[in-house]
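Data deposition worksheet. Section B asks for the primary sequence of the deposited chain exactly as it was used as input, without tags or linkers unless they were present during the calculation. Section C holds the resulting structure in token form. Section D is free text for depositor observations; keep each observation to a single sentence. Incomplete worksheets are returned to the depositor.
Section A, Depositor: J.P.
Section B:
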Amino acid sequence: MTRGKGCAGGAWAGFSSGAGAAADAGRAGRELFRRNFGTSPDDERHRFLFHVHGAAGVGKTRLVKEFEHLAREQGALTAYVDETSGSVPEVLEAVCRQFALRGHRLKDLERTLATHRERRHEAETAALAALDPAPDGAPSAGGMALARAGLAGLGLVPGVAPFTAVLDPEQLAHGADRLRTVLAARFRSHEDVRLVLDPASVLTPVLADELDAVASDVPWTVLLLDTYERTGPFLDAWLHDLLTTDRYGVLPDTVVVVTAGRHPADPARWGTFADFMTSLPLQPFTEAEARGLLAERGVTAEPVVAEALRLTGGLPVLLSTIAGTRPGGPEYISDPSATAVERFLKWEQDPGHRAAALAGALPRLLDVDVLAVAADCDAQRADELYSWVATLPFVDRLGGRIRYHDIVRAPMLRLQRGRSPRAWTDGHTRLAQAFRRWREETESGRDTATLWLDETWCELRLGELYHRLCADDPAAVSDSLWGLVEACDQGEALAARWIRVLEDAGRDVFMPEVSTWGDRLSTALASGGTQAVLDTLLEWAGSAHSSEPWQRGADRASRPRRRASSPRRRRASADTVSVRDAAADPSPSQAARHVTPVTATIPPPLLARIHRDRALAHAARHDRMAAVAELGRALALTPDDPRTLGLRGEFLRAVGLLTEAAADLERATALDPADAYAWASLGATRLALRHPEGARTALDRALALKPDYGWALVRRARVARELGDPEGRLSALDRAVAADPGSAWAHCERGDALHAADRDQEALDAYDRALALDPGYASAYASRGVAHHRLGHLDQALADLDRALELNPSYAWARERRDAVVRDLDG
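Section C:
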């Protein structure tokens, strides 16, 4: 290979015996990968990254699997990862699992990943408290809202993901700083904070060290990252830093990475590193290559060959289905209307195998348990069938599961819909019920707030929704949208998976309007985050009154690393062979084109939920009146929803509409007497209305329901102050800082109580703690200045009060206190 040039790969390597340039290029690609293990990493011909790319059906996964086999023949330790891993930590968990199965435990990385999961759960728990009513005079104007926004951006706070879409970059930066401060107070070390906020920065150096240790036991380590068009958005920058910089440490030179996706490598990111990477574009076979392959398999009759070429478009996966099965003459491909899948099933003589092959196409992913349900058989028979299905040429292995290639699965699904719509519905209904049963077993005895962090539970719920949609369950669309809104609360990654279910079901059941809306929601997510998804749903709901934005077919019977070395930094631009995007996707039957429109409306409670999320977004921008208006729209849809009433009551209290706030909150507590949030906000409202006895009653109810409710404890302390109960005030504040040691507000309030009790030295300690948690807390500076003044520390007092006024120039009380300090200094 020419120095500094990337190798031009070719067609699907599985057809190494085929004639022609594409097959030769495929053999060359495999040979290049094999020879790479015999080339020293110091040799400029050695490659550390191979990127396979090409259209759907061209055989990328098959080639990656061949690469893995070749690597193992050379003694390499390998790990294969696909889109079932949705983040860098999940990718590293997959690598740990596979290495352990091959006798190499990455113990330090496993421990760090376990710590990451624990800290993430702790951060989620802490974040739930941030949903409590924001206090008046909260530290750093807007700080609590920004902290919530930062946590929502991490996918840790149910219900507030819309915050991240409405804050400007300066606000987000402020929120990130605030978030780091809060987490630093809660966690034991800065490392724990980074494990939550930037897990890759902590986990990847551990990976590099582990791979360095592994290098003493194995000659090569090979990481294979498939379906890169889906994983690349979160992996590509990380992989670039891992392979071409020292940011995460030094990788051993024996690490080789293979990526495979539909698109070429990003030239802006990888264009200057052609000296250590190889691009392998895959293309469909030319007509001559396809004819040569068919001839080798005994298929020579011109009508048969012509039909095979028409159906496959030269795509290796479909050619494998036709040419790789039992040849038997022209009669097997004589019917122009038959699909490649139908002919494959005709060639298979065992009716049980034929039925299993079709049943296995119904789920998106297949294991023995799922096949037992799809094929409606017992576990022993399912195990036998699964072993056979796994050998089919269009099946990809994904760890312990398998998946049909999309380009073969699609005609299989069309075949089943057309042959027996009733059997189609029955099969998907059985699968939906099984996924529901498995999901409920996973939920048993668990806190629902933690289920969204459970990958198994999410996968089961998505599987259940997919099969309900395919079975035309009347409630499936609404339930899917409920799930989507809840997924938006968890962050963009999970929302994207929910949208993909809509896209997949719309395509697989041939509901083009559903697919179109899935595409539209996906576009909204990419352009504007979860807030844009919610806005799109509201637009859809608004247009549903005058048009049919989402129509569904009613007549189902008619449808059917490594460290960068200096040579890699020096050389640029690799030569690659362009990809010819081609796919064989037989058109649906004419009967399937007749779609009867029916309206699938968004139910009022779901619309109300969307309005509620939008209200939280307005509140994050300090536009509480807009939030009140949004909640009014929600209450027009669900007038007796206590949570919405409680939120509106709190926002009304915050803008000073106290009578209206009390009305909402009293109604909310009457509807749901167990809502500590509403009771606490009602207590604060009554206190503002100068009804301290009523405030005490409401806050005591809140604290009886939630004894460690920090916000309510601070409010209860203020009630005690109004009622002349200094001991009760300090007791409530002691409980508040114990319940939430990261609350600067609680520490400052406690300092004020200590100052009022003439315990100024202790008060200084409390103010110091508050300012350590929030260095921009103007009120804490002012209060600490006053305490210093009374203790005779005039210089410190002046410095603190100057800082308070610098942060808040209109702070009249701080200016009065400063004037008093200046007078004492002058006197």
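Section D:
Strands lie at 49-53, 77-81, 221-225, 255-261, 277-281, 395-398, 401-404.
The chain has 39 helices and seven strands.
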